Amino acid sequence: MLIYLRVLKESFFFAINALKNNKLRTMLSLLGVTIGIFSIIAVLAAVDSLEKEIKGSLSALDNRTMILTRFSFGSNEVPQWKREQFPDVSYEEYEYLSRSVPEVSAMSYVLNVPPENIKYSDKTASDVGIAAVSAEYYDIEALQIEEGRFFNMAESVSGTPVVVLGHDVYENLFGSRNALGEQVRLYGRKFSVIGVLEKKGASLFGGSHDTNVFVPVNVVRRIYGGSNRGTFPQIVIKPEPDADTNELIAYISQQLRNFRGLRRDDINNFFVNQLEGFTDLIDNMTGQLNFFGLIISGFSLLVGGFGIANIMFVSVKERTNLIGIQKSLGAKNKFILFQFLFEAVILAVIGGLIGLFLVWLASLIVSQFTGSFEFILSTWNMFIGTAVSAVIGLISGIVPAISASKLDPVEAIRTGM
To answer: Where in this chain does the record put each MacB-like periplasmic core domain (predicted)?
Structure first.
């Protein structure tokens, strides 16, 4: 064991000397490994960060939650031209399903509308996300109220101009003042502040609830019109804990078919999407992104591998005389083999560590400029980067190491003289 530690120590110093004595040649050869590791880990980290951001936005919702809409979250056999003709789910359909579907804990009608500016006195909160929902959404996502309350069913149905502020919006407009009962301007009209949400993370509506406000859906319906396809209406359904989701989806589908008057041979002109299926779709997409990223990065690693092999062949040629002397003094082939093999691995790992450092640097810069989006460089990804570097060094150094170990000591000394 001690002899291998000594070989590792000597190989480390030989690798460092190679870097010192042939800086330009070595750095150019390591550039391929550095770029390859940077590409692989950057792709893995970016995909992991994106997956965490998307799944984090759904974390407050039950994984069995269903979203009824004209869009499909996954692949389907319906042609795109036909899907584009599907009608949006209507408020009347939401009311009908609310009355007729059993085993549902909560059901909410939701509109997706563009961000707006909100004003209070001389202060303005810009690009605020508008969550236009019916009152039941409070139970679906289990929203946490810091002050005041959420709007009730009567306010939701009548379209009372009330608003619940996200924490960041509240601080931008009111600072530390009490906002309850105050009037803010939204859509050119006055809304009474009835609640402020606790500061929290990501949400279904993108970004964070901290930068959103909640308003009764019927207020927004009056502004945009009841049949505006640009609002992408959806019905969000939270099943009872013991409900059979497959049976519930079948029942909802049948009820909506009946309401729309579809014939037996007509296909469903709507989709009942489950968040569980959405997370599966996300996993599939991130898997494909990782796959293509690894293929592209593999070319850089291939170039880097040839670069390491080139360094090692040159190193063997330069140290032929030393190899002969070592062998004449009793060094075994295995000792020479491991000496050059360790050196190749160490050089590749150095290139990989440089790549990891560049990814870490890039993650800091990206996180600074993207605000709430956090670019994550995980310990697992760093381990992958280091392990891949070591494997590249091992593969690249095996042939030069074998050629060095098989040198005849007499011929090696004579050649080096």
So the answer is: 26-254
